Amino acid sequence: MKILVPVKRVVDYNVKIRVKADGTGVELANVKMSMNPFDEISVEEALRQKEAGKAEEIVVVSIGPAKAEETLRTALAMGADRAILVETEDSVEPLAVAKILKGVVEAENPGLVILGKQAIDDDSNQTGQMLAALLKWGQATFASKLELGEGSAKVTREVDGGLQTIEVKLPAIVTTDLRLNEPRYASLPNIMKAKKKPLDKKAPADFGVDTAPRLKVLKTEEPGGRKAGIKVGSVAELVSSLKTAGIL
Amino acid sequence: MAILLLAEHDGASLSDQTAKALTAASKIGGDVHVLVAGASVQGAADAAAKLSGVAKVLVADAADYANRLAEPLADLIVSLSGAYDVIIAPATASAKNVMPRVAALLDVMQVSEIIEVVSADTFKRPIYAGNAIQTVQATDAKKVITVRTASFAAAPEGGSAAIEAVSSAGNAGLSAFVEDALSSSDRPELTSAKIIVSGGRALGSSEKFQEVILPLADKFGAAVGASRAAVDAGYAPNDWQVGQTGKVVAPDLYVAVGISGAIQHLAGMKDSKVIVAINKDEEAPIFQVADYGLVGDLFQLVPELEKAL
Predict the structure, then answer these.
(1) Which tens digit of pLDDT belongs to each residue from A196-225?
(2) Taking the CA of residue A183 as centre, how many other CA atoms within 13 Å lie in the half-sphere pointing to its CB?
(3) In angstroms, what separates the C-alpha of B137 from chain A's closest C-alpha?
(4) Chain A contact probe: residue of B96, B122, B171, B252 with most A CBs at under 10 A
(5) In this predicted model, what pLDDT tens digit does every residue of A127-164 receive, in sequence order?
(6) What is the ipTM score, two decimals?
(7) Is there a contact between B276 and A242 if contact means CB atoms under 8 Å apart?
């Protein structure tokens, strides 16, 4: 089986982002960029399935600017076999990303697509579910365990109040949650080898997808702040403060 | 304008997240119809009919909807969608699973996790783990929206809407339910609790987490939360996780124990009415959002607090 893993280049999760003063967005110039953490988990899961003999080839794909090649090289250094970059300098919404990915799936015919449950920049949590809808495939979102079988996959999902296990027919969409695995680091020799792995370049137009946004961003602003309160010296003082404030 | 609100429920009862999403729906304006889909859902349907602002309750009572599998539920919503301008749901795990599928089937770009209704087509939503707030205008004719319920008050009771059965839209059988492993507990549910006691990595082990956090939570009658660091370290189950990648909560009182206050955690709890932080590091960022901070050894202070209540 072939596994397709879409990855997104986002602001590194350790960076404290800054909102532009003019309200037009978030400052992205000279900011460290990395692979979306949930996508790292997706790449890792695909690698583990391959290592377990359940998959033969792992193809990673990114839709984004020319620099997203770095993100794809990271995935190749982790162990993916080849990469596709659908290059666009525009910001592409989840619905359009899903439409492009549908085109990639039709060209590549994977038995499984593993995506991160959400990207940590726009926090939409939509692309996997949308891709499943467009392909008319089953979906297993927020996975914390994935067992690939013959013609189906058993997936344990993180839901409110605990876990749900479902069986989904293949081909299918799986989106990853935090506890699925701990992604590996790429070793230096593998980073060198990744530079020679094949990387195809495409454009959204190759898939006939219009990426014009459907959501018009009117403004981006800082969240309302919360002021620090007081330090209390003891448990007794804490309890009496809470009582005075009418909380207890 | 007609609005279809997907109810969150467990069959017998309605989650108060539905009542909170109803408040957001009412702000958009128009007749709100609540869809209660599941198996044996009379209790939840009756509760939805009593909410003030509900014009009608639609009940899809069929085995196919019992486990809220995304594919049949999305097909059901799409089958009803023709009559509605807005399809909205509280951003629960189950709605986050199904709503984008609905949106794509309708060729609509979803607006995820709104925190404010600016006008009928314009909404505020958090991005970058709540470190920025975006105002977006949805240009699709139909809107598909999920609601961050911590930002809206629950709609009160006082209605008496008619309840109407709708027929099943079938099930293509793309996925099947195997089992649920839901944590059974007498404690309140995290997203609707009035008080939450949360533990962080400073607890040091799963045993200590149980030993220190749970008795305090029980004394408060509180739900139990955890930071992502505590969940990653295996001290607490993932469904206790409060933060951008876990649950977003806004209780009356949030007690953060041994939590440093990483950005991603603050994003999940900073709308709480009152925040108490107990941490040995007085420079910890949690104190920048806490109303009451107590600096010291949690292993000594928490049992002391429990006794003092």
Answers:
(1) 999 999 999 999 999 999 999 999 999 887
(2) 24
(3) 5
(4) B96
(5) 999 999 999 999 999 999 999 999 999 999 999 888 99
(6) 0.95
(7) yes
Partner-chain contact A130 B130, CB within 8 Å? no
Architecture of domain B2-165: 3-Layer(aba) Sandwich (3.40)
Q: What is the CATH number of the domain that holds A78?
A: 3.40.50.620
Collapsing DSSP states into helix, strand and coil, what is residue B38? strand
Tell me if A161 and B100 make a contact (CB, 8 A cut-off): no
Nearest CA in chain B to A242: B292
Which site among B275, B281, B292 would you substitute to test the A interface, given the most A Cβ atoms closer than 10 Å to its Cβ? B292
Name every residue whose Cβ is closer than 8 Å to that of residue A193 and which is 6 or more positions away in sequence.
Answer: A77
User: Domains of chain B: which residue ranges?
Assistant: 2-165, 190-308
Say if CB A166 and CB B178 are below 8 A apart: yes
Q: Does this chain's domain B2-165 share its CATH topology with B190-308? A: yes
Q: Report the number of distinct structural domains present in chain A.
A: 1
Give the integer Cα–Cα distance in Å for B16 and B38.
17
Asked whether the beta carbons of residue A230 and residue B293 sit closer than 8 angstroms, the reply is: yes
Q: What is the CA radius of gyration of chain A?
A: 21
The position carrying tokens 């579910």 is A129
Question: In CATH, which superfamily holds the domain spanning B190-308?
Answer: TPP-binding domain (3.40.50.1220)
Distance CA B214, CA B166 (A): 44
Tokens matching residue B108: 């609509």
Which positions ≥6 away from B103 have C-beta within 8 Å? A95, A126, A130, A133, B109, B110, B144
The residue in chain B having the minimum alpha-carbon distance to the alpha carbon of residue A215 is B138
Give contacts of B 117-176 with A, CB under 8 A.
122, 126-140, 172-176
Confidence bin at A227 (pLDDT 50/70/90): confident
Q: Nearest Cβ partner of A123 from B140, B244, B295?
A: B244
C-beta atoms surrounding B109 within 10 Å: 24
User: Is pLDDT at B184 greater than 80 in this prediction?
Assistant: no
Report the alpha-carbon distance of residue B305 to residue B188 in Å, rounded: 20
Instruction: Report, in this order, helix, strand and coil percent for chain B, each rounded to 5.
Output: 35, 30, 35
Domain that holds residue A168: 2-244
